[in-house]
Amino acid sequence: MTARFHAVLAGTWVALLLLVVAYAVAEGEHMLAKLETLKVLAAYSTGVRRLVRPDLVAPAPAAQPRQSSNATRVP
Q: Phi and psi for 70 in degrees, rounded to 5?
């Protein structure tokens, strides 16, 4: 009787642990999808997380090369 009880109890624990792991995996995927929209990358091997800054776009006047007003033009 007690051996059967222990087998049922162990089976229940295994089922519960599988349920917890499945929930954690599903929530982890959901959170990673949210973080992807926030442009946050995770280095999975080290567990280090860093924020990826978007590329800075230079304003139009600063993006053009400057030339001094007294420069000579070559025809």
A: -95, 15
Distance separating alpha carbons of residues 63 and 57, to the nearest angstrom? 9
| Contact criterion met (CB below 8 Å) for 35 and 49 | no
Q: Is the pTM of this model over 0.70?
A: no
Boundaries of every domain in the chain = 2-53
51 and 39 in contact (C-beta within 8 Å)? yes
Q: Residue length, the chain?
A: 75
d(CA 23, CA 46): 23
Residue type, 20: V
pLDDT for 23-58, tens place per residue? Answer: 988 888 888 777 776 655 545 544 555 555 555 655
In contact, 44 and 35? CB cutoff 8 Å: no
Q: Which residues pair with 41 in a beta bridge?
A: 50
